[in-house]
Sequence to fold (365 residues):
Amino acid sequence: MLATFYRKFGGPSVDEVGQLPKPTKDDLVPGKLLLKVHASSLNPADYKQRSGGVTRFLVKQKFPMVYGFDFVGTVVGTPKGAESGFSDSDVVFGMVKGLNRGSLAEYMIVDEEICVLKPENVKDIDAASVPLVGITAVKAFRKCGLREYDPSEKKPRVLVTGGAGGVGSCAIQLAKHLYNASFVATTASPGAKTELVKRLGADHVVNYREESIEEVFKDEPPFDAIFDCVGDVYKTLSVLAPGGGVVSIDTAPTAESVMEWVEESGVTAVVPGVKGFLGSSIGAAIFNRLSGATKIRNILAKKNGIYNSVIGTGNGRIMTILAKEMENDRLTGVIDTVYPLKDGLKAIAHIESGRTAGKIVLIVE
Fold:
């Protein structure tokens, strides 16, 4: 089958588009599904993991590694002799768990528990663009203390940095419709990206090239929840409300978020000693101090604020929420460019350039 993959850690030169063995029904075990992939999308985590980085010191990986966390596909196989909540011909979508990527391919095997039925009124390319960014945004807002579908909660003021990116564009929509925010502010460059985030529901857009978050909002009511998608955490701390929450996907990871990801992902191939170290109070304290999380928490402690980082992973319960939002036209995919699978290398180079507004989607022809 055709796939986009790499056989070792490195830069763009290790990327390949070529043939790999096709998974079959005989490869299935209880709890797994075989999918014929319709569409997938890329995320910065894809090329960051290809480079190795911190990941190689935390989790053992098997090569070749096929790109792609997000998927939309038709079920073409369920385990023999095992019950399944899905049937052949069901069209499902979701995000893989842990590092078990593989959606930039014609076929893939996924965990059944992370899949949900794709609403009939949602296009494949839109569905493929949402899972990772949507799951990440929901987890982030929950860690900020917000609750979905709760009319008794006060309408929060929300700040999302990097609103034109994949996660940011999804977060703006969820803040407005899922968390009933009274005011959503974001940062973006002037022009097309500013117009994009306004269409998504942003009430105020900070031109980060010429304005500072601190100055723009110094005389305004503070924010109950701040979601940093681009590494601007320190620029936002002064505008957090007392008792509010800040979450980042780009700055100061916490030991708690790493351990949460390991547990939720069901990752077993962890480098020896990592879980024990991060799971201990001393190890967690060392990790958080080195990452910068402790410094941020100490700053926020003065206003009883909280800080967390978040790492998304496959989650069927959150996908059920996202599917409902998409079905009811309260959440839509924000797509920069669509590529055919055979142009996987071009797609990876595009997202790695950092010049995108929304997601890079690949379709399997």
The longest helix spans residues 131-143.
